[in-house]
Design brief:
By secondary structure, the chain is an alpha/beta fold. It contains 11 helices and 11 strands. It has 3 domains: 80 residues, Winged helix-like DNA-binding domain superfamily/Winged helix DNA-binding domain (Arc Repressor Mutant, subunit A, Orthogonal Bundle); 103 residues, D-Maltodextrin-Binding Protein, domain 2; 102 residues, Periplasmic binding protein-like II (D-Maltodextrin-Binding Protein, domain 2), CATH 3.40.190. The chain is elongated, with a radius of gyration of 27 Å.
Length: 299
């Protein structure tokens, strides 16, 4: 089959949006017979009926629904491609960033504020494990990545954003008090996908003689939605360990206390991008928003 005619495909998409042939023809400054001819030629090229005409208009066939979905995807892809070539305007076009789930919760309100001020901006935020973030930046899927360790790769640049503490969070009644390991075991741990590695870092540093690995912890609950991890802690039924960004983003953080351990565990956040001589103003602005988010963690 030859490549689909773009004009016919555009006419079909406008027809679906307008709802009838007359309005679609007016939008495209065409006659109604001309519009009908475009649809007929597209159907002939595909060898399938796309619309079923009736006295009150038309409905799409299954082939019509699939064609419409494909056409819309094509226009989105073309629009995003053209936006990617227009790097002069910092407040217009698409940007993408990937980071941990906790940092994403802290960052997203700032991205929303940017989009509110700049209607031409489309911001994509992905929460992902570090390996996926690095591979996504290398593939060009993400403009910026935020990771805990600077990757050593010849195609990447890395900028140190600053420290992010790992916080052991407790019910508010523990404010100002340091728990013992047995007290933590009695309370129970809210496990999550990164819980074991965070427990190794925090509990291993502060309870070396008692902590025997995450598999020995008394687990009270498991949740993989990072925004929900602090809730059972706030309600007094468990403790957990999260990066500071996840604690700050929790709406009920005033109902939490943070254990004042003598041996704090710190992540070192890095901003990574592909190596280029220059970055577009739009990506530079995104990087600035990420830097401001990271600065909140040091306060």
């Amino acid at each position: 089959m030859a490549e689909l005619n773009s004009r016919w495909l555009r006419s079909f998409t406008v027809l679906c949006e307008a709802g009838n042939f007359t309005r679609a023809a007016e939008r495209l400054n065409m006659t109604q017979p001309g519009m009908s001819q475009h649809i007929s030629k597209l159907e002939e090229q595909l060898g399938l009926a796309l619309v079923e005409r009736g006295t009150r208009g038309f409905v799409l066939t299954d082939a019509g629904e699939k064609t419409l979905a494909m056409a819309r995807a094509r226009w989105r892809l073309e629009r995003d491609f053209l936006d990617s070539l227009d790097d002069a305007d910092e407040d217009r076009g698409s940007v993408s960033v990937a980071c941990s789930g906790s940092f994403a919760m802290l960052l997203y309100p700032s991205l929303i504020a940017w989009m509110a001020e700049a209607p031409g901006v489309r911001a994509s935020l992905t929460a992902a494990p570090e390996e996926s973030i690095v591979s996504g930046v290398l593939a060009g899927t993400y403009d910026i990545g935020v990771v805990g360790d600077a990757p050593r790769h010849p195609r990447l640049t890395s900028e140190h954003l600053g420290p992010e503490p790992l916080d052991l969070i407790l019910p508010l009644e523990w404010e100002g008090r340091l728990p013992g390991f047995e007290q933590l075991q009695s309370l129970g741990f809210v496990e999550h996908p990164d819980g074991a590695s965070y427990a190794d870092a925090v509990l291993g540093a502060n309870f070396g003689s008692e902590y025997r690995g995450a598999e020995r912890l008394h687990v009270r609950s498991f949740v993989n939605q990072i925004g929900q991890i602090p809730e059972p802690v706030a309600q007094g039924v468990a403790y957990s360990i999260l990066p500071r960004s996840g604690v700050l983003a929790f709406p009920g953080r005033e109902r939490l206390s943070i254990a004042p351990f003598p041996e704090p565990s710190i992540l070192q956040l890095h901003l990574i991008t592909l190596k280029r001589k220059t970055r577009s103003p739009r990506v530079e602005k995104l990087a600035g928003i990420v830097r401001k988010g990271a600065a909140k963690l040091a306060s």
